[in-house]
Amino acid sequence: MIALDEYKGKVSPDWCPGCGNYSQLRAISMALSELNIKPEDAVISSGIGCSSNMPEYINVYGFHGLHGRLVPVAEGIKWANKNLTVIGYGGDGDGFFEGTQHFYHAAKRNVDITYIVSDNQVFGLTTGQASPTTPVGRITKDTPDGNIEPPFNPLHYALTAGATFVARALSGNIKSLANIIKAGIQHKGFSFIDVLSPCVTYNKINSYDFFRKTTYDMKDNNPKDFYEAYKLASMWGDQPNSIPTGILYDVQAPVYEDADVVLSKYNLKDTKPYQLKETDLEEFY
Amino acid sequence: MNDIIIRIGGSAGDGVQSSGLSLAKTLSRSGYYITTYNYYQSLIRGGQSWYQVRASDEVVKNQGSGLDILIALNEDALKRHTSKNINEGGASRLNGIAIFDDSMITNYEKYDDVKYYGVPLRDIALKYDTNPLLKNTVALGAVMAALNLDFSIYEQVIREIFSSKGKLIVANIGAAKEGYEYYKNNYKLYKNIKVEKKKLYMIDGGGAVGLGAINAGMQMYFAYPMTPASSVLQFFADHSKKFNVFLKITEDEISAINGAIGANYAGVRTMTGSSGGGFALMTEAVGMAAMTEVPLVIYEAQRPGPSTGLPTKTEQGDLNQILGAGQGDFPKIVLAPGNVTEAFNLTKEAFNLAEKYQLPVFVVSDLYLAEHIETVSFDLKYEMEHGLRAQDNDPNFKRYEFTKDGISKRAVPGQKGLMHNEDSDEHNELGEVVSDTITDPEQRRLSMEKRMRKLDVYLKNIPPTKTYKLDGAEYIIIQWGSTKGVVEESIDRLRDDGIMVGAIEIDHVYPMNHDIEKYIKNKKIIVVENNFSGQLNKLIKQEFLIDTKFVGKYDGEAFFPEQLENTLKNIIVGKPILEE
């Protein structure tokens, strides 16, 4: 096990006190530390939003890109160097509005990356607009008469796309969150983790108390059963034990990098590029 | 220069393009330099398409004007290509022979300067196959006789093309031979150009970009299909296994460029490419590559816009888009090859520039350049320059160190002790964001200047601007990209008439080498480009504060030399060489 301190970034987070992102920062560090993944062998690709500032606060390689585009950057990194542990990290606005097509296709391809979304049901960095996971009726800064769009269900989306690992976790529960992230990183293929993460400033309803009351840890679900997972993914509510957390789905399927004719043979980062020879021009004679 | 221009006209589905390729290959192997021109639409069947091969004993710079031999595969083709204005604005017309099936086509207007050589294409074809498609092979056989070419070379080309379909080899050779004999027995030799047999390779601009990228050590290509950038995509699809290149067709162009940035960040040379419409989707990430200082080569093959525009036609209308792509000011380099050989060479250069200066570099092409074939010889010598790299565990490593030349050491994931953050937000030397909690105007100013300084260094090392026949030139043509060959030939023709013109050929378009100033002083400048508004023209005016004349073309076709010569002559001496 590598000491947790090794993952501590030089910059202190600028998140609001009490923000759900803090426990995710710690849980990701714990997972890397417990899995013995050296800081130089891990990369976090993030988008834009409060949560996406993560790469600065953790001592691994970080790429803080554009809003909604963290998944293709993560894929590019993974395909260039399969030896790296590549984690995509961003918010619900980032991943479920602008980034949906990338999320879908990465899941469908089963590329071996872990995609963690800090899902707080609101836009934080732009100060409180409705996000793709904002519930119907919710009054936000830009929905003064209440949100009329049904929320996006990221778990359904991931499952339908073909993700081979789908989980839901609660930000406040660090130990269990770290375990789920560990399982996600260890999973061979695309792993998706939706983290319910309270925004203490712009979402007073989906608070720690709300999630403590409504969520429960699944004990005896069968993560090989797609339809059971789909059903569990449908569960949401404001009553006790209405939102299941844990690993909903975990199956093995061919991984993109193993199926590709070039990537299956080479780790390109460690492979000398092809040397073009005069005889290669013969086909153009 | 002894040359011959041969055109095959027919409908989509007639095998116009494939027979054009066979003809080009046969001529090239016979020792001719060639160039081709492909006129087609987005159609699988029907419409009218044509394919032209110009062959010569000297290097061929463009598709040429006029026509020596026409193969008309249907009535419409015969009418169209024997009439006036065969080149949509070009002045000359067929002055030679038309090979067509006179048993099928009987109703046509006869022109004096055309010899109508009927060959029973269909009847001969049907002797060898149940499919009359072989009629184009019969016609090519006739062309071999018309030009006194070594038939065995064509025979060998047929063998290679149909190598997987044995029966078709025999049928095609039989049909070609009979076409050859028919012409010999009935018609006169048309032209016999003496050429020495030599080894020439022939490839299109897209293939040259692909080969150039391989030569430069590129290992990954990310793209979404879009004509005319697809010839590069296809090149990698065909050669992925041979050259160990990872090809990724992504869900959209945004993913393609972001993926390419991720891969380059991780230390593997990667390119992305598209045409104008797809590139429009990439623009935000171009700025990110510049901001994070990740090397990136972007291939942009232009077609006429706006919007979907003309998917199978050519134009140089994306310069403004490329120069303006991405919010804010940031360094980028724009290269524009003028022919297939330059496409190969500049692609190689682009990869080294991208790594050396850690910024986005564009290789700008267009449909004409990407899809026409030239005979070439490529110099494969290449030294990969990876630029500044940090050593593992360097205690003083600062990813964005404010150096004198603005270039800082890179580190890639996996390197020990160099963990850092690369950020699309404004950041300090360490890569720490300075946009959110700390707003520091001084920091921002220094970061901007650091990035922009890289171009000052680039401009000190930029190769001298290419010129063509500037001696004694009173008028100077300035061109960029694929108009190079046609401009050069127009200059040759004008000089033959005693009109002193020369050309400046801008292949390093942005930032621009100011050595041009010494050439343009006290000269009259004409900027020639394949677009409506004169996008380079405006850039030239802005850079050098000079007065210019602009010659544009925006009908979807490339310039033709006689047409350009005519226009230039009109501007320079006030009268056209040919009356319209």
Structure description:
- The complex is a heterodimer of chains A (285) and B (580).
- Chain A has 285 residues and is an alpha/beta fold.
- In chain A, 29% of the residues lie in helices and 16% in strands.
- Chain A contains 9 helices and 8 strands.
- In chain A, 53% of the residues are buried.
- Chain B has 580 residues and is an alpha/beta fold.
- Chain B has 4 domains: 3-186, Pyruvate-ferredoxin oxidoreductase, PFOR, domain III (Pyruvate-ferredoxin Oxidoreductase, domain 3); 204-376, Thiamin diphosphate (ThDP)-binding fold, Pyr/PP domains (Rossmann fold, 3-Layer(aba) Sandwich), CATH 3.40.50.970; 388-461, no CATH class; 466-573, Rossmann fold (3-Layer(aba) Sandwich), CATH 3.40.50.920.
- Chain B has helices at residues 16-29, 75-82, 121-128, 135-146, 151-161, 166-186, 205-215, 230-243, 253-265, 276-292, 319-324, 340-357, 367-371, 441-461, 484-496, 516-520, 535-544, 561-573, and strands spanning 3-12, 33-39, 46-56, 67-72, 94-100, 114-118, 201-204, 220-223, 246-249, 270-274, 296-302, 333-335, 360-366, 373-376, 421-423, 466-468, 475-480, 501-506, 508-510, 524-529, 549-552.
- The interface between A and B is large, with 55 and 71 residues.
- Strand 2 (61-64) of chain A pairs parallel with strand 15 (421-423) of chain B, so a sheet runs across the interface.
